[in-house]
Amino acid sequence: MGKNRKKGKKTDKNNMIKRTARREAAAEKYFNALLSTITVIIFFGVIIAIGAVTAFSEKQEFSETRNGKLAEFPDFTAKKVYNGSFTSGVETYISDHFAGHDSWVTLKTVTELLSGKKESNNIYILKDRLVEKIAEPKEEIISKSVKGIRTFAEKNNVKPYLMIVPTQAEIYSSELPANAPNPDQQAFIGDIYSELSDCTVPIDVYSVLSANSSDYIYYRTDHHWTTKGAFLAYTAASKRMNFTPLTEDDYDIEHAGENFRGTFFSKVLYDGITPDTLDIWLPANGGEEPVVEITSTFDEAPAVHEGMYFREYLDVKDKYSTFFGTNQPMIRLRTGNKGGRLLIFKDSYAHCFVPFLSQHYSEITMLDLRYIQISYDQLVDVSEYDQVLIMYNASTFMSDENIKKLMF
Q1: Mean pLDDT across the chain, nearest whole number?
Q2: What is the pTM of this model?
Q3: What are the residue boundaries of the structural domains of the chain, listed by start?
């Protein structure tokens, strides 16, 4: 009897412990379910709220931070729905106008840096420099570009000068994260020069830029070279293009634009890099500024601007456009100086380089094939020019499908 009573008490105690454990487990399960429900409600609430703000807020046409025109809502047509362009257009529109876009980009960059990454949005974030992650060369595009240059030379019976400029990713490759993918631009430039050596005159600017890498020759937050970098290339070009360059002492250097944050900054919105300074080099002997004709559309007369420097851009984010304004199909300078006529096919690296050349030519015409949908010979007569220069940075030359237009 005594043993049975003890056994019964022990069983009751065990059952009580089990019931207590079940109640605690049920309470914990309820709490976790409630917490999950609240989390889901908050998450979707935030998404819905951001979506509502995105949908009903006033839409900007241009973002100064991103330095570009924002996407418009695509037209709804059966064809666009069928080929998928309507859906992709809506995605781009939402991405461009997403509420708090800049804050999200900054948060993403900071989060990736805290996790140990040194790259965000294809930009390497170094100690005090932003550098673009360069994609591998696209052989099909390069082959067509090379063919375009060769065809141009043969068609016009001219031997153009060819300048391919290395970017920061090459000159500062030793500062990139270990094992970071980075095409060998020096080898690439050498291969292109060798392949076109029979029909072009290559201009080596790699050597002078590499030798002066410790100088301020590239912007820290933008994809362009600085005016100092362009000046070094100008001195190297003079040896091949047969003019006597001015020296650095022949210029008054104006620190025209402070707190310049360029295209790389726009991709990561990271404030940990020292802002850039934009310099304008003005000949110390003075002289009149060239008359600059800007052709935006070919069915209208060109706009005329007095001088090469569009100083209104010093007051906005896109300070590099101080040099000749924004990218345009055709820009012509009438310098009033003695010298021949020069035709340049180029990207925007030419914009802070050409002011140096303006001292040695009476007229310079720049064509940007990215913005020209007709044959170049409908715009210019190559035979009227004394020299032709084809000038691109290496990253553009590796990927731009427009250089092939030289063959048409």
Answers
A1: 86
A2: 0.78
A3: 130-407
